[in-house]
Amino acid sequence: IAPCSLIRSHHHSLTSSAGVCVCCASETAVAGSAYHTARVPHRSYSHSYIHLHLDRPSSKSLTMGDVFYDIVLYGATGFTGQLATAYMAAQYPAGSGVKWAIAGRNKAKLEAVVKDKGATMAGIIVADASDEAALLAMATQTKCVATMAGPFARYGGTLVKVCVESGTDYVDITGETHWVREMIATYDDAARASGARIVHHCGHDRLEFGVG
Q: I need a surface site. Which of 19, 24, 73, 127 has the fewest CB within 10 A?
């Protein structure tokens, strides 16, 4: 797969075809930040800035449950997850038209994040990274999962799997390139078939590349 050939930039909106893609970002914001194509080993890609829009059509065709979210932030109780929650609360308050939720394995901690970050408009979903059924139930309730729950080689594979299976778009902040290569090899064909857009390296650590 040519990692960022899956992305097309049209008026700064994300309109990628299905599949597993590798991107990198200069900011850690989950939604509303500019993304550019990555340079990967042995291949080079020109920079193409794109902007995430939560109102774009979803590729999902499955029957949804009673609750349908535009985006779910998974791993919301961690350091980066709390930053993302605060960002979402500021950018998409009640009445914004965007429905979103935070998710993780501990309900009490999720409730504390909602209170601390003023994110009372957010739903709460409890799903452990080792519980495939719970992750699948979460994925089927949303258009997109944005996950900050790492290390991804240890905790991230099952979430990618259920997103691919359910046709749910997925973004993460991993810097674990070896794991990303494994995900591409394992799930790219299935993601193309289901319509899921799997985008790794969104907002991952940049210091070593910047000073190198």
A: 24
What stretch of H or E contains 212? none
For residues 124 and 14, what is the distance between their CA atoms, to the nearest angstrom?
26
Non-local CB neighbours of 194 within 8 Å, separated by 6+ positions? 18, 164, 165, 166, 167
Instruction: Tell me the residue type at 29.
Output: A
> What 3-state class would DSSP assign to 40?
strand
Six token digits for residue 85: 């929650």
Tell me the percentage of the chain whose pLDDT exceeds 90: 61
Tell me the two tokens of residue 153: 């080689």
- State the Cα–Cα distance between residues 193 and 49, nearest whole angstrom: 26
Global model pTM greater than 0.90? no
Which DSSP symbol is given to 18? S
Q: Give the C-alpha separation, 104 to 116, whole Å.
A: 16
Q: Find out whether 170 and 136 touch, Cβ atoms under 8 Å.
A: no
Q: What is the pLDDT of residue 14?
A: 38
Q: Could you give the maximum distance between any two Cα atoms of the chain, in Å?
A: 49
Query: CA-to-CA distance for 101 and 74, rounded, in angstroms?
Result: 9
Q: Are 59 and 196 in contact (CB under 8 A)?
A: yes
